[in-house]
Amino acid sequence: DGGITQSPKYLFRKEGQNVTLSCEQNLNHDAMYWYRQDPGQGLRLIYYSQIVNDFQKGDIAEGYSVSREKKESFPLTVTSAQKNPTAFYLCASKNTNTEAFFGQGTRLTVV
Amino acid sequence: GNSVTQMEGPVTLSEEAFLTINCTYTATGYPSLFWYVQYPGEGLQLLLKATKADDKGSNKGFEATYRKETTSFHLEKGSVQVSDSAVYFCALYSGAGSYQLTFGKGTKLSVIP
Hints:
The complex is a heterodimer. Chain A has strands at residues 4-7, 10-13, 19-25, 31-37, 43-51, 54-57, 64-66, 76-78, 87-94, 101-102, 106-110. In chain A, strands 2, 4, 5, 6, 9, 10 and 11 form a 7-stranded mixed sheet that branches. In chain A, strands 1-3-8-7 form a 4-stranded antiparallel sheet, with no helix packed on it. By secondary structure, chain A is mainly beta. By secondary structure, chain B is mainly beta. The interface between A and B is medium-sized, with 24 and 23 residues.
């Protein structure tokens, strides 16, 4: 079945560590997105990518980095520069004239 | 820029009550409009969509009509169930050379027996 997969579902980070969240899609979508969701809050765009080897900052890119080396994959690294990384992270993908498809999310907690 | 405004929550209804969640938008061109639903601890799922003016999207008893004259896309359901308890997001995609999606802040719905 086609879809978008995020892993892991739960992730724990120690202070000062970088962690990488995985997002893979087999929908042949051109565009991929990363959103952050805090409790009781809406979605905030971190980064998005329209094509391989290209990506743009969203509203809250500071402390995050991404890469898009393959069409299917769009990993997000939460760096130690992100001071408040505890949140629910959602990945999505889309083509022109289709709706966005979302993964099941990764819950990141700083311990 | 594009924006989506949806009614503040939370909304609490009794089972079998009528539901309306208001959504208005600002966008250039002719956007596509969407309603997504998020159950606790999960990602967003598409509930319904409309791609041009006067289109009505419908799914699982929910409906929304794309009203260009009032720039609205209100979500309605005639009789809610406890299983409809979730957070609902209105969203738009305007294309126009950008792949940016724009979401409302979400409305939490709780349905009580």
